[in-house]
């Protein structure tokens, strides 16, 4: 069903551009975009510009995981901390990334680090939210039985709660990693850099619409590849954790 919709969209795109209804400057045809993508790959532009973006996105995602999951655990186990922290977690998503980026430049400077921090900020919310939801929706009878068996807080968390909440927690990580890719591109557009956001800016300034479309395509393909990879790792991790829990 999804593949059919994609094919139909490409056929419609080709039909509109081939008919001449829209100037190629405004909407290049799929053939032009594919040719531009082929040229970018042949010239080595894809690997040169994609690598910095991926590095920043993955660093930001790791930073978000390191902060969001422990915070989600604390929030789910403490009503006081939940009352204090949850409003700030929600507020963190109301500030536009383009407003945060200049502040990061002032505080940290230019380069990969501020872009990675921006990625962490955008990836943080889904990770902490799904961690809290996953831990709060546990079957408390299992947790109470573990308590009756004498399991301490850390043993319950590691051997009972984490395995049971793993699908929700790892789904948030998967979504956060994809959002981190978006954060990296936005960061490069605002703060500069050497990744796909920079290539997008160069293509726009050159008024090369086909190149702009091709960069957007590379960004989408990269995000889809990350999504698929994290999905495979997520499935393996869930099977392992829940297998240990059983």
TrEMBL record:
Task: Check the record and name the CDD domains matching this protein.
Answer: TM_PBP2
Task: Describe its membrane topology.
Answer: Multi-pass membrane protein
Span of domain ABC transmembrane type-1: 50-234
> What does the UniProt keyword field contain?
Cell membrane, Membrane, Transmembrane, Transmembrane helix, Transport
- GO CC annotations on file: plasma membrane
Q: Where in the cell is it found?
A: Cell membrane
Which example biological process does GO assign this protein?
transmembrane transport
Q: Transmembrane segments in this chain: where?
A: 54-76, 88-109, 115-135, 165-190, 210-230
UniProt similarity note: Belongs to the binding-protein-dependent transport system permease family.
Identification of the protein by name: ABC transmembrane type-1 domain-containing protein
């Amino acid at each position: 069903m999804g593949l059919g919709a994609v094919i139909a969209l490409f056929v419609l795109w080709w039909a509109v551009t081939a008919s001449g209804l829209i100037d190629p400057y405004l909407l290049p045809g799929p053939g032009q975009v594919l040719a531009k993508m082929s040229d970018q790959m042949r010239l080595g532009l894809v690997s040169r510009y994609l690598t910095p973006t991926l590095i920043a996105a993955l660093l930001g995602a790791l930073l978000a995981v390191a902060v969001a999951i422990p915070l989600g655990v604390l929030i789910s186990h403490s009503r006081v901390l939940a009352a204090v922290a949850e409003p700030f977690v929600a507020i963190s998503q109301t500030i536009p990334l383009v407003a945060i980026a200049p502040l990061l430049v002032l505080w940290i400077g230019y380069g990969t680090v501020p872009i990675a921090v921006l990625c962490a900020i955008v990836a943080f919310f889904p990770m902490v939210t799904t961690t809290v939801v996953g831990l709060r929706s546990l079957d408390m009878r299992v947790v109470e039985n573990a308590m009756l068996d004498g399991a301490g807080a850390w043993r319950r968390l590691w051997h009972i709660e984490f395995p049971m909440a793993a699908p929700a927690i790892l789904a948030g990580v998967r979504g956060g990693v994809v959002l981190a890719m978006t954060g990296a591109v936005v960061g490069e557009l605002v703060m500069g850099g050497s990744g796909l956001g920079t290539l997008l800016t160069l293509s726009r300034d050159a008024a090369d619409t086909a190149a702009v479309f091709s960069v957007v395509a590379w960004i989408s393909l990269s995000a889809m590849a990350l999504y698929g990879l994290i999905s495979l790792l997520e499935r393996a991790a869930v099977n392992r954790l829940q297998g240990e829990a059983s």
